């Protein structure tokens, strides 16, 4: 059955993790374009302020305080949408948490807690949405990461959870297609995004965490999410830098590992000492209507790669993917050669 998605102004959209970062920016952009919103997060004060802001500006938004790691909470989000708007057209699973540190430093309890939110939260939301949309049609949009395809050193458990999200997303899409359900299932794969992600992460490193370059604005991801709400897409990588990483991992995995070990691990360490371990979004709500994070470098406000692939033909997408992989391979190869030459001169 062909999937037909409604214009944004005719949609009700559910967004989890709406109190900061990508979820917050997506909510604001969707409201500006006329969508009705059901917003969920653990931070009640932030959600209340956001809904007041949207409603005062002429939009329509309600909120539900929810922890997506709890199936009952996810059901309450769906019930709130039914009671207020009679249902929904798009469900965006965006809520997520992260951990920085070597595997031997991270307690198993923290690893399990991360998976409860990042993976099981997506499972609960997707199955709830699939049940509702299977007959009427709509979109399920799961926010993964470029780390659904590659692994960032010192973010191994987060990367593993995003690998799991991709596997689940692919299986869900195939099953809905097999049943002839008019539901689009999309995986959004952001690169490094300048949000409070690093500030909310539980950090076991000896320095404050920061994004590795290049970093993009959260608006780039929000535009991709809202594109997928009206245009069926299998997956969208946000950021040419992230697409290059995926290509590099695929074509020259050993070189990519060396880059992670020798360069990227250093780029994840900020200069300042870490915050107290208790200050993190894994163990407690941390949303505060903050869109941007602490990235110290230049933030790319637009991803020309993502803008091109969401507007271009399949042939253009293939060409851009191949070109990005070749470009990064060449750059990393030059970096490796310089490093080796430097060692020989010492």
UniProtKB/TrEMBL annotation:
- CDD domains referenced in this protein's UniProt entry, alphabetically: SDR_c3 (cd05360)
A Pfam family that the UniProt record links to this protein: adh_short
Q: Which UniProt keywords apply?
A: Oxidoreductase
Q: Where is the Ketoreductase domain?
A: 11-196
Query: Sorted alphabetically, which Gene3D superfamilies does this protein's record hold?
Result: NAD(P)-binding Rossmann-like Domain
Read off the SMART domains from this record: PKS_KR
The UniProt similarity line reads: Belongs to the short-chain dehydrogenases/reductases (SDR) family.
UniProt name for this protein: SDR family oxidoreductase
